[in-house]
Amino acid sequence: MPDTSVQEAAYNYAYLDEQTKRMIRRAILKAVAVPGYQVPFGGREMPLPYGWGTGGIQVTAAIIGRDDTLKVIDQGADDTTNAVSIRRFFARVAGVATTTRTEDATIIQTRHRVPETPLKEGQILVFQVPIPEPLRMLEPRETETRTLHALSEYGVMQVSLYESIARHGRISKSYNYPVMVNGRYIMSPSPIPKFDNPKLDRSPALQLYGAGREKRIYAVPPHTPVKSLDFDDHPFEIETWTECCAFCGSRESFLDEMIVDDAGKRMFVCSDTDWCQERQGHHQEQKRK
Amino acid sequence: MTDAPLLQARDVTKHFAGRVACREVTFELWPGEVLGIVGESGSGKTTLLNCLAGRMTPDAGSVAYASASSGVVDIHGLSEARRRLLTRTEWGFVNQDAREGLRMGVSAGANIGERLMAIGARHYGDIRGVAADWLDRVEIEPDRLDDRPTTFSGGMRQRLQIARNLVSNPRLVFMDEPTGGLDVSVQARILDLLRGLVTNLNLSAVLVTHDLGVARLLTHRLMVMQGGRVVEDGLTDQVLDDPRHAYTQMLVSSILPV
Amino acid sequence: MYVAVKGGETAIAHSLDLLADKRRGDRSVAEVSLDQIDQQLGLAVDRVMTEGSCYDRALAALAIKQARGDLIEAIFLLRAYRTTLPRFGDSEPLDTSRMVAERRISSTFKDVPGGQVLGPTYDYTHRLLDFSLAAAAERPEAPTAPADTAMSLPRVGDILEREGVLEPAPDIVGRPHDLTREPLVMPATRPVRLQNLTRGDEGFLLALGYSTQRGYGNNHPFVGEIRFGSVPVSFVPEELGFAIEIAEIDVTECDMVNQFAGSHDVPPQFTRGYGLAFGHAERKAMAMALVDRALRAEELSEAATSPAQDEEFVLAHSDNVEASGFVQHLKLPHYVDFQSELVVVRALRTEVEARNQETALSQAAE
Questions:
Q1: B2 pLDDT higher than 70
Q2: Of A3, A15, A45, which to mutate for an interface test with C (greatest number of C Cβ within 10 Å)?
Q3: Which of A43, A53, A210, A270 is catalytic?
Q4: Domain boundaries along the sequence of chain C
């Protein structure tokens, strides 16, 4: 019967074996070479369930090294349970420094948000993706969506936006808002709020997207045009709030709504905890080895 | 392009599990012509239509099309990409069951606007305007623009399907029993509509029908099929008024006098 | 004054402690051992090995213990462990004709060469709860005939195939795509489908197989043969260049004989469906064989109209580790996406209410 302490010692650096990392890196290279194109990869079962970020974890595990500094966020926060869980995982299997400060991170793994702090060249943003196929809800068949991408047959997507305007008077898609990458592929930016879409356009950082359960990797290299789909007379718009952050006063960030009492009283707080704390003047240095 | 036929079929043959569905069909279609293919069910006419329209691959023979930009192309030699592009721009296909040629889950406006959006139209108001214009041309009430085809009658769905196909100004339209399954009075109105559109837009078409009345009304030339073979062809009026082949004679004589 | 919820790490640590506590249960009750699970809950072990894609009884038993009997959780544990195992090659194809069978039956003939060997099965039991099992008791060992490895159990399928009434089994050509290493690509080949099905959820396949019997793509199945027993696993190490036996594993194999295909000119033959599982798992092997045959609809020129015949639908949703993950991931925080939706819904509601007010006002004015 395998001894657990022996098991720990027997894991390769960053958990995945070198063959698997090589396979993932090849997929990443291919993805970077064709921005927005979904590259199939031989995803493995990971110690976290599918749906908990196995794609993002595999991408990070394939690229992380001892000199990296890792930040992990979920819904913009470093301290949500799953972000904590993933950060601990890498701290253990990669012996890597971790941080909550966006500025100090070399790799940022994220679920459902892009950090408010503008990213710099040399940083890598790894997105956790549930459904990599932006056309999936319009066309359930993989064989068909693959063909649509290959032939740039994107009429069905534009039709869905038209329909939204016809029904609601506006494009009602609010998160996972489809984008055109490098003028060629329609991509799902993962379920980030549309508020974050503009941050992807020509970002100096490298964007990597990992979908573990669906086994797809895609990428947007630095300085690549990423345009949210719209109509000329119904241009893309981001969310706005009338309130500001109750902690730091920010009017520029995405705000979480908290219900604070039984009467339904609400408070709005920055979703990006690091951004909020920076603005409050708290320097929460958390470098751990 | 007036020196080449728009569509040229040579010896088109297709089998199904040992049975021959259509055999060595050869014809030419010229711009502005409407060619009818008539026969009883099982005559092979729908199989032939599917082979012509690139939906099925014939076991033998060829289908050549004079495209707008690339000269004469062999339909079945094209890559899937090019064939699909052709289908959405230069061609139309009106199915007998409109549901197969429509997106039932989106509005009439979206259905009509799709081909425009597929080739890059990005102004919602303009697309809507064109769609509304087409609704009018196919005689659907303008206030139905945002309704889904699930709420339409059979005749209205068929009209919508026609509009969805014609919005891209196709050069060639394939029609498979376009009025099949509809009430007689509804049929009549759609036939009138089609006749008007074909004339006004100078459409070329290949129309499959078992109904000789439809053929008489819409087609210039007629091919009669029996058991997979073309047994007679010629100008529609000639074929219907003076049928030579015994089968055609039988078909013509069995039309119930009105 | 609202204080942001912190201490996620501590909460997680406490949750894990609680879980370990629940897993052990009442300390005055004896702890279950892996041997007990392997021996007395062996069919659970078989299922976990099959869907975990890893033949190791001890590991499967450990996974079941750790998962408190939740088999899908146990399957996940085993799969995750499998990810870390180095791969040193592929075995030779299993030759189930060399099986030392504990059980072999056929429904297509009353008797077959080698006989109908009933073996251990629930099939002939009456489902009456046996209260004597509530207490430990001495149970005599059942007498068994000596294992006759020389006894030949010719396959019913081979016999029918020789006569020509059953389509030949497909040839094994080259090394098949490995679904545990490479992603599923549609349309899938039959070997890939079979891999997907054998590690697919038994309940899902059972339901689909059942649906074919009730008319959703009926293929008139008969059990040509079911056999359960041990087969050797052979491997050709590079250094040796010839095959050596490295293990013996128990498998259950089901050959279904299905609706014949053929036409006026092509003489009809029965067609096949195939199922294979680790350990003793007849329900799984049979369901798999039914679905395998259903998914061959296009190959056999049948109209594919039912869910069991829809390759994309079946193969994309058969994996319970994937399914469980995605369904349960809804428990993760989604408050940012939800906030985005709230913003939209509120804006739309404001617009609709404003429009209705306008209409009401103008109507009142008339």
A1: no
A2: A45
A3: A270
A4: 9-84, 96-121+148-318
Please identify every stretch of chain C with a pLDDT value under 70, giving residue numbers as ranges. 1-7, 147-151, 263-265
User: Mind listing the pLDDT tens digit for each residue in B26-48?
Assistant: 999 999 999 999 988 778 899 99
Distance from CA of A103 to the nearest CA of B (A): 39
- Domain with residue A219: its CATH number is 3.40.50.11310
Contacts of A79 in chain C (CB under 8 A): 6-9
Specify the pLDDT at position A10.
64
pLDDT, residue A237, reads: 95
Interface test with B, best of A160, A170, A231 (most B CBs within 10 A): A231
Q: Which overall architecture, per CATH, does domain B1-90+170-258 show?
A: 3-Layer(aba) Sandwich (3.40)
C11 touches chain A (CB under 8 A): yes
Residue A3 has pLDDT above 60, yes or no: no
pLDDT digits (tens, 9 = 90+) for B116-173: 999 899 999 999 999 999 999 999 999 999 999 999 999 999 999 999 999 999 999 9
Which one from A53, A248, A264, A281 is the annotated catalytic residue? A248
**Confidence (pTM):** 0.87
**Is residue A220, in this structure, part of any structural domain at all?**
yes
Q: Quick check: A7 pLDDT over 50?
A: no
Q: Using CA atoms, how far apart are residues C42 and C39, in angstroms rounded to an integer?
A: 5
Please report the pLDDT score of residue C6 as a whole number.
60
Q: Which chains touch C (3 or more CB pairs under 8 A)?
A: A, B
Q: Residues of C with CB below 8 A from A254's CB?
A: 336, 339
Is the CB of B88 less than 8 angstroms away from the CB of A155? yes
Active site residue A244: no
Residue A189: which domain range? 4-133+179-228
Spans of all domains in chain B: 1-90+170-258, 99-168
